[in-house]
Amino acid sequence: MKIFITVIALFIINSNTFSQEFTQEEIDIYISELSNSDKNHFTPIYYFIKHNVVEALPTIEQYFWQQSCENQQYFLDGLYFLGSSLTHQYTLALFDSLSKPQKEKYDSTEKYNWFDCHDVLSAKVDCIKILYSLGDYSKTNEVFELIERDNEEGVVPNSGIHLLTFIIRYRPDLKEQAKQELMKVISTATDDRAMFSYSLSLSSAFDEEEIPEIIQIFKNSSSPQVKRALMEFYFSRYEDKFDLNGLVKESLLTEPNGELRLFYVKVLLLGFATPSDYEFIKNYYQNENNDTIKSLIQYEINSFIPAPIDTAYFVIDLLNNLTNYIDSVYSYNWLGDLTFSNELKNILTIAKTNLQNGDSLACRVQVKAFQDLVDNVCKDSLNTDPRFVTIEGWKFLYWNAQYILDRLSKP
Fold first, then answer.
1. Which of 53, 187, 224, 332 meets the CB 3.0–4.6 Å disulfide criterion with 260?
2. How many domains does the chain have?
3. Residue 119 DSSP one-character state
4. Residue 259 lies in a domain
5. How many Cα atoms within 13 Å fall on the side-chain side of residue 269?
6. Is residue 348 in some structural domain?
7. Which residues have a Cβ under 8 Å from the Cβ of 296 and sit 6 or more positions away?
8. Cα–Cα distances in angstroms (integers) from residue 142 to residues 9, 19, 133, in the given order
């Protein structure tokens, strides 16, 4: 699992520091200078990572142990991202060297030293990040120590929190302790960015079996950042495992934060996007008490078009779904009358029969006839017969028919 370290590296190597590419001559010079332990090698190492300059790897490996503590962290990233077979060995050795008892002065006879490390604990946790990314979860004490220290010093965001995800997933013996630490920082955090960041960790740490627990965290939280992060990065993974639609609707009715209410509206209209969701939002709109949010919801309602359907579904399934939509729009009085409803269903029945017989062109003709009939009845406001299709019904029937046509063979 490489989530945390990859995010950090991408942040670093995509910065403006490396916007200008080196020439081959410059690359050769930077590689040769890696032997100089007095230089800061941040820029060349992360340039090598960004541009996958694997030719630098032997030199990084050769001069790793002659570097300062700070440079060793850069070199360690270089080993990892450039794919050195020595990464695990060097990381463990560096971690062990940082764990040696402190000496009064620098010992030049040592192969490697912690002496010039400004923050030994952070340096050890940096090693643990690499180990976790390599699938080695043997080191954990320092993660908890760093979290405790950051909490005491008020460091935001707490730099060790993201490693709890690995401990929760891969250290069953420490899972509960790690969960409690994660829950504690989420419940006490006041910084918006930190809360969102911690919620991402929570989302990636827990699996399906924790759904009831995460729902309670979601409901008990007063943070819009936490709620949105859980909705986007945890609940969205398991929407077929519980009633996510119901949770969103319940939350919309009770949420005090206007921007989050608008987010829930978009989840229902753009995510679930069924007739019942559209009707729910139309009814909710009347009770929205924030004028700005209300106008934005009105825009979402007016501009709504059902999202294109996942191509993983078979066309026969889409035809069945469209048939069900006829019943839905009829029940909301977006379509009338019953005879007209049955007429539309009969067209789709013929289309399904054609498709099952292997005649997709004939199926297409019927679906197009369905679409045209819906469109003409909707536009013919002067028609005196009982047939009608409102704009709401038209959106669901016309566009879902179009998505089926997009999947069928053209003449």
1. 224
2. 1
3. -
4. no
5. 26
6. yes
7. 262
8. 21, 35, 16
